C-alpha cells in the first residue's frame, strides 16, 4: 500500500523494502480519524510554532500555535503509531484543533497503512531489503 500511495515521493521509480517481524504484542496507537491524531498530540504535545508556521499556513490557510507529538514521550507508552487507510484519507493536510493545548495540529509525512516503530525492541528488521521498481506504471518486485 505504501508504494502505491506514498506521501511526498522522491523514489524516482525505485524502492527498497525491508521485512519487519513484530515481537510479542506491541503497544500500537491507531490513528483512524482526525480526533485520534489530535488526542495523541494533546497527550504528548511538542510546540513547533516557528518551524511549521509558514508550511501549515500555506497548507491550511490558518494561523495557530502549532503542535506535533513529542515522539520521545510517545515512545514511553507506545511501541508504534499506525495510520490506517481511513485515517490517511480523513486526517492529513487539515488544521485539527486541540482540546488540551492552545493551538492546532496537522498530520503530515505519513504514508497510508504505515506504522512508525518507536521502540526497536518491538520489531526485527531484516538485513536485506527487497527491491521494487515501477514498470508500466505498476510496482514490480525485482
Outline the fold blueprint.
Blueprint: E1 14-17, E2 20-22, E3 28-31, H1 34-43, E4 45-47, H2 49-60, E5 67-69, H3 71-77, E6 80-83, H4 85-90, E7 96-97, E8 104-105, E9 114-117, E10 123-125, E11 130-135, E12 138-141
Parallel strand pairs: 3-6
Antiparallel strand pairs: 1-11, 2-10, 4-5, 6-9, 7-8, 11-12
Would you give an account of this structure?
The chain has 142 residues and is of the alpha+beta class. It is built from four helices and twelve strands. It is globular and about 50 Å long. 22% of the residues are buried.
The rounded distance between the terminal residues' Cα atoms is 17 Å
Strand content: 25-35%
Return Rg in Å: 17 Å
Question: What are the secondary-structure elements, in order, as H or E?
Answer: EEEHEHEHEHEEEEEE
Low-pLDDT regions: 1-5
Number of helices: 4
Morphology call? globular
Helix content: 10-25%
Q: Could you describe the largest sheet, including whether it forms a barrel?
A: 3 strands, antiparallel
SS class: alpha+beta
Q: How do the strands line up in the largest sheet? A: 1-11-12
Task: Provide mean pLDDT, rounded.
Answer: 87
Number of strands: 12
Main features:
alpha+beta; 25% helix; 4 helices; 142 residues
Summarize the structure.
The protein is α+β, with helices and mostly antiparallel strands and 142 residues long.
